[in-house]
Amino acid sequence: MSVMKTSMRNFFAHKGRMALSAIGVMLSVAFVCGTLVFTDTMGTTFDKLFAATASDVTVSAKDASDTGETQADNGKPPVMPASVLDKVGGAEGVKSAEGTVFSTSVTVVDADKDSLSPTSGAPTIVGNWNANDARTMKIASGNAPRGPDQIMVDADTADKHGLKLGDEIGVITAVGTHKAEVSGTAEFQVTNPGAAIFYLDTATAQKTLVGETGVYTNVNITAAAGFTDAQVKKNIAAELGGAYKVQTAKEVADANAKDVGEFMGVMKYAMLGFAGIAFLVGIFLIINTFSMLVAQRTREIGLMRAIGSSRGQVNRSVLVEALLLGVFGSVLGVGAGVGLAIGLMKLMGATGMNLSTDDLTVAWTTPGVGLLLGVVVTVLAAYVPARRAGKVSPMAALRDSGAPLDVKAGVVRAAIGLLLTGAGGYCLYLASAADKASEGSMWLGGGVVLSLIGFVVIGPLLAGAVVRVLGALVLRIFGPVGRMAERNALRNPRRTGATGAALMIGLALVACLSVVGSSMVASATQQLDKTVGTDFIIQNDRGEPLTPQAVEAAKSARGIERITEYKWTRADFTTPDGETLEKTAITAADPGYATDLATETVAGKLTDAYKPDSMSVHEEFAKDHGIELGSKIAVAFQGGTTAQLTVRAITSSEVVIDQGAMYTAIDTMAKYVPADKMPLDQLLFASAKEGQEAAAYKSLKDALHDYPQYKVRDQTDYKEALKGQIDQLLNMIYGLLALAIIVAVLGVVNTLALSVVERTREIGLMRAIGLSRRQLRRMIRLESVVIALFGALLGLGLGMGWGATAQQLLALEGLNVLDIPWPTITGVFLGSAFVGLFAALVPAFRAGRMNVLNAIATE
Amino acid sequence: MTSAVTITRHGGTGGTTAVAARARQVVKAYGSGETRVVALDEVDVDIARGQFTAIMGPSGSGKSTLMHCLAGLDTVTSGQIYLDDTEITGLKDKKLTRLRRDRIGFIFQAFNLLPTLNAIENITLPMDIAGRKPDKQWLGRVVDTVGLSDRLGHRPTQLSGGQQQRVAVARALAARPEIIFGDEPTGNLDSRAGAEVLGFLRRSVDELGQTIVMVTHDPVAASYADRVLYLADGRIVDEMYKPTADTVLDRMKDFDARGRTS
Questions:
Q1: Contact call for residues B61 and B234 (beta carbons, < 8 A)
Q2: DSSP character string of A380-444
Q3: Stretch among A196-205, A302-311, A668-677, B70-79 having the lowest mean pLDDT
Q4: Residue A832 falls inside a structural domain
Q5: Axis crossing angle, helix A715-758 with helix A15-53, rounded to the nearest 10
Q6: Do A626 and A755 sit in the same domain of this protein?
Q7: Is A680 contained in some domain?
């Protein structure tokens, strides 16, 4: 019989035993393919959107971004005079030119002052209803806006918020608040992923968004027949000189796509990273499956060898089985991946991001990548057991049981494992002792990888010790059943080790991140308590600046002692060492900020940085550029002129809040930046008069009621919000890690199921001499719990080590407090006991149902 | 021959009746209609308390099936089986399991021991499972009887085949079951080791008053019994008291000859 034929027969004879491995492969491949399909579909959606919305040629202000998005620090879009429109209209090849005005620095509210902005992170856009929009949108009800009292809403937003014709809507901009009634709704002709769009007529849009008429943010040009976009662009550029930015439709679409692509790229690679972890865990599952199948088939393989099969043939026959498993699992995985992508799209739909299945994009590479990855990983994972199968001696056919444990290999393994773990530990030590973050993170990365591999290698040895301890603590309560469970878990330490290690990987990451996350919260809280001298913070959670009206409103609140404005801009720095640092961030605040946030200084007094023509720099910056107190830095403010500022304070770099900020006074900045270019306030800090905190808090909230986009928080709220933010991020990561944990749980189920098959005769014997079904099931459950707890213990230990090291390293960046989230850690530990119980459900049930006589009779 | 073979009381451990187990009109059939195979055909048998009974017969005669049914490992198609006064036919798995645990001992041909437990743990396993404390004195006597005192800490893989079977015998004896069933307990042993094990079984009947039922096809093994039952085609066709290896062998040759001529 040929190798292929035996493999096929074996594969199908044991298809039940392969099922869980196939699911493992399938899940990992599905996650990869799902990610690819989802991001490709998003790409298609945006491409279509950008292609549809861009006009042939677009003219925009010089300092507008490439994507035509016109958000600026001062809250108003950069504009051009109406004369540009005339000039453009005269250029050769221009069929028509239309001025548009739109802005994304807006907040739109309904009559109850509830924000109508999307919660998905998509922009809110207010603009004039123009021919270009009329091309891509269809008026679904009512009419286009006419006059200052009318506003048209996109149909999705109207649906979502139940807006009807005639409803009142408020548009809040840096200019002021404009009220209008819904005059109509317009539907997108392509999929709109989720932006909320509002239309005013041209004059109203100009007044509301910019504060003056006769200006445009863009000019949309339609090319005349016979002219390419590029030709028209050239002609227009010649007409306008270099004062404006001219882009063809393709250039705008490309810039947009690049913008979105960057975000999607991050998401894609993050998700692929998690898929990679799942694959890693899946490798353990596959190794275990094939090891167990080979062990169970030892006599059979011995017979094959005895009648003349070569090592290579035996080896190959196992690999061919792995190949079949890989192909089978991957094909299912590709299919499941598309399903997963569709599910993800629906899920995104629930959060306000519309993606249409019409745009579902399955690139030909997607199934290719999925199949290749699944097959290669499966075959590689099966290589070790396959080699072991090849080493089975023909004598095995005659012996009763499987090959005895190789003692020498155990010693070698222990040596290698300890060496790796030791090296990993040393790397982690170096990381925690490092002076430089960059150098330390290298050690940290190396330490994490080495200690992980080390733990995997010595896993089987640790299994012995850990299971015995767990047995003494947990299993003894269950008497002889517990003892047998313990012995069973110890019977094949390599198997228990590999099964536990699979669970270890996911849980180690969970533990590490939870330690870092809670240390972040604890450090920030400690610093808030120590350095923050103000009572309230007012900010927009999406990082948008505060409009002057909102600032005025806040200032009108009662019981307030001091309001500190906080602005943020970029400037080109020229340092004494002659270096020019372009677009460096600089913070301008009222002098009160030195009290509001008492950042520690290493030299000078922070309050001095707010003296005229003064500033502060942070420690690292000072070190890098040889700056001392009294050094002068040339600061060329964006949109303004160059100032010579004297460094009067150097702040510590070991802070969490405002890390790396360099301060100057708003008054100083105002000397060099014209009023209309001054950025809006990014944050406001308010301090209540002594004893009037509660009243001031309420008054502030009332004052800002009309501006739902801004949140007023006292220190308690702020800490909670901070914790909430970190928790949300952690939960998202835990959610993605769940995949790896599910694969690991499959591994536990797999190990137990195969063990039950392997121990059929034993189970029959025990049942014959009086072990009840319930006791039998309990025995299997306890074994499962012990394996799971073993994995959890290793994972949590390793993860906490990583987390603590990361905290030590991040202490350089102000993460001073190490906080181990014991509730989370204990929760995960206890949770893994439940995971063990859950994993044992089916194997225990099947063992209980075994017929005693058949079980005894099994060879 | 389907008539009951009744035995008068012979020794015993002081049970309520002289009969440790009874089968009445027991039928065990597999399949139905054309493919119906009858393994036991209206078998009536009484197993005397305190005796060593051997069940013999050619392959497929139903001897193992009879033992499995008597031991509560297998269900019957019709008829009743009693262990002492308890009818075990029709009992649910839970009660049967408990019955096997508390009142029956087993010795199988091979694979009698759990590889993860050492000898003494294997011996006390049925009592451990039941949550009972073993009777120390009795346990010591059993261990001495089978001659394992210096091997108690050994795992099964560290014991010879004969030693393993002796551990199995000790396990069966340790819980003081009403009856011990052996399924070719010496089938995998060489003649010397087999003789040792059979000797222990014999002694446990003589000295400890144990009731033992053993399935075998080895005339020498059967010669250790007080009584031999012969099965053929699912029926008890003959019996013999105080057998010797030669008389058993002769009787079997007899059957073979009859089988060939009939």
A1: yes
A2: HHHHHHHHHHHT--GGGGTSSS-PPP-HHHHHHHHHHHHHHHHHHHHHHHHHHH-SSHHHHHHHH
A3: A302-311
A4: yes
A5: 140
A6: no
A7: yes
Q: What are chain B's domains?
A: 51-64+92-261 (3.40.50.300)
Please give the average per-residue pLDDT across A236-259, as a whole number: 85
Residues A129 and A195 occupy one common structural domain: yes
Give the chain A residue nearest B157 (alpha carbons).
Answer: A401
Co-location of A778 and A840 in the same domain: yes
CB-nearest to B100 from A480, A768, A856 is A768
Q: Per the domain annotation, does A446 fall within a domain?
A: no
Does any CB of chain B come closer than 8 Å to the CB of residue A403?
Answer: no
Question: Is B92 part of the contact surface with chain A (CB cutoff 8 Å)?
Answer: no
A771 interface with B at CB cutoff 8 Å? yes
Q: Which of A201, A221, A248 is the last residue of a domain?
A: A248
Interatomic CA distance for residues A338 and A576, integer angstroms: 57
Cβ–Cβ < 8 Å for A69, A104: yes
Measure the CA–CA gap between A486 and A489, rounded to whole angstroms: 5
Structural domain ending residue among the three candidates A195, A230, A248: A248
Question: Each residue of A71-100: pLDDT tens digit?
Answer: 456 778 888 888 888 888 888 888 888 889
Of the pLDDT bands very low, low, confident and very high (cuts 50, 70, 90), residue A794 is very high
Identify the residue whose tokens are 């001897």. B63
Residue A291 lies in domain = 1-58+249-404
Max Cα distance, chain A (Å): 102
CA dist., res. A82 & res. A216, Å (int): 7
Distance CA A829, CA B229 (A): 60
Domain co-membership, A286 together with A231: no
Q: How many domains does chain A have?
A: 4
- At residue A632, φ and ψ (nearest 5 deg) are -110, 135
Shared-domain flag, residues A70 and A42:
no
What pTM value is reported for the model? Answer: 0.82
Compute the nearest-CA separation of A766 from chain B (Å): 8
Q: Is residue A422 part of a domain?
A: no
Assess whether A88 and A153 both reside in one domain: yes
Is there a single domain that holds both residue A53 and residue A68?
Answer: no
Report chain A's mean pLDDT, rounded to a whole number.
Answer: 87
A589: which strand partners?
A566, A665
Residue B6, pLDDT score: 39
Residues of chain B positioned with their CB less than 8 A from the CB of A771: 97, 101, 129
Q: With an 8 Å Cβ cutoff, is A773 touching chain B?
A: yes
- Look at phi and psi of residue B14 and say left if phi exceeds 0, alpha if psi is from -120 to 50, else beta: left
- What digits encode the pLDDT tens for the residues A715-754? 888 888 888 988 988 998 898 888 889 989 999 998 898 8
- A306: Cα separation from own chain's centroid: 56
Reported ipTM: the value is 0.83
Q: For A443-500, what is each residue's pLDDT tens digit?
A: 999 999 999 999 999 888 888 888 889 888 887 788 888 888 888 888 888 889 989 9
CA dist., res. A476 & res. A469, Å (int): 10
Q: b/e string for A82-106 if b means 16 or more Cβ within 10 A?
A: eebbebbbebebbeebbbbbbbbbb
Report, as an integer, the average pLDDT of B91-114: 86
Q: Would the CB atoms of A770 and B130 count as touching at under 8 Å? A: yes
pLDDT band at A526 (very low <50, low <70, confident <90, very high): confident
- Say yes or no: A197 and A332 in one domain: no
> Largest Cα–Cα distance in chain B?
57
Tell which wins on pLDDT, A304 or B82.
B82
Contacts of A830 (CB under 8 A, 6+ apart): none
Question: Is A487 exposed, middle or buried (CB count within 10 Å of its CB: 0-12, 13-18, 19+)?
Answer: buried
Residue A269 CA, chain-centre distance (Å), reads 9
